[in-house]
């Protein structure tokens, strides 16, 4: 029953997305001294999440393909940062800023999930 509530699906997707973004940022930081390494980015959740409005597909059964699965909207891209003389384009300062942004996105997902559970508990009289 709770898996069908869109608020829980959205907060779950937001938490998963922030985990994927953190993995990309960690890989960039780990390769900060690797010659020729190009920094990678993953778009923020708000840019890659489809709300289901307009002409996007809506899944009503587990066998249906979601529009995000078809479009592959959350793909890793190369950053536009300027490369150092050794060809590496990782900026540790920018990666640290990205890491803080990702942490806030993850905390926001957890807060949405927690507050949704509180509302659900209150609505059934267990709050």
TrEMBL record:
A Pfam family it matches: Flg_bb_rod
Domain Flagellar basal body rod protein N-terminal positions: 20-38
Alphabetically ordered keywords of this record: Cell projection, Cilium, Flagellum
Main location: other
GO terms for cellular component: bacterial-type flagellum basal body
Subcellular location: Bacterial flagellum basal body
Source species: Octadecabacter ascidiaceicola
Superkingdom field: Bacteria
InterPro entries (UniProt xref): Flag_bb_rod_N
Protein known as: Flagellar basal body rod protein FlgB
């Amino acid at each position: 029953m709770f898996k069908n509530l869109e608020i829980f699906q959205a907060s779950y997707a937001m938490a998963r997305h922030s985990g994927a973004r953190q993995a990309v940022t960690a890989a960039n930081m780990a390769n900060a001294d690797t010659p020729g390494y190009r920094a990678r980015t993953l778009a923020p959740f708000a840019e890659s999440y489809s709300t289901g409005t307009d002409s996007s597909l809506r899944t009503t059964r587990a066998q249906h393909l979601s529009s995000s699965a078809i479009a592959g909207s959350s793909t890793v891209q190369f950053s536009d940062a300027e490369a150092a003389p050794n060809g590496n384009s990782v900026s540790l300062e920018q990666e640290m800023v990205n890491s803080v942004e990702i942490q806030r996105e993850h905390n926001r997902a957890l807060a949405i999930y927690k507050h949704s559970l509180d509302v659900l508990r209150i609505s059934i009289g267990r709050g």
